[in-house]
Amino acid sequence: MLKFVVRRVLWTIPIILLVIFMTFWMMREIKGSPFRKSERAVPAAVLANLNRKFGLDKPWYVQYGKYVKDVATLDLGPSLVLRNQDVNDIVKEHFPVSAQLGGLAMLLAILVGIPIGIISALRANKLTDYIAMLFANLGFAIPSFLVATLLIYEFAAQLRWFPTNGWDTASSKVLPVIALSLGPMTYFARIVRGQMLETLQQDYVRTAKAKGLRWKRVVVVHVLRNSLIPAVTAAGPLLGFLVTGSFIIENIFAIPGIGRYYVISVSGRDYSTVMGITVLLAILVIVANMIVDILYGFLDPRTRDART
Amino acid sequence: MALLEVDDLRTYFTSRRGDVKAVDGISLAVERGKTLGIVGESGCGKSVTALSIMGLLAPNARVVSGSVRFEGRDLTELSDRELEDIRGRQIAMIFQDPMTSLNPTLTIGLQLTETMRRHLDMSRDEARKRAIELLEEVHIPNARARLDDYPHRYSGGMRQRVMIAMALSCSPKLLIADEPTTALDVTVQAGILDLLEELRDEHEMSMIIITHDMGVVAESADDIAVMYAGQIVEQTNAEELFDHPEHPYTEALLGALPQVEDENVRQGRLTAIPGRPPDLVDLPDACRFAPRCPYASRNDSCTAKMPELRELRPGHLVRTAHPASERQGAPVPAAAP
Question: How far is A210 from chain B (nearest CA, A)?
Answer without folding.
Answer: 6
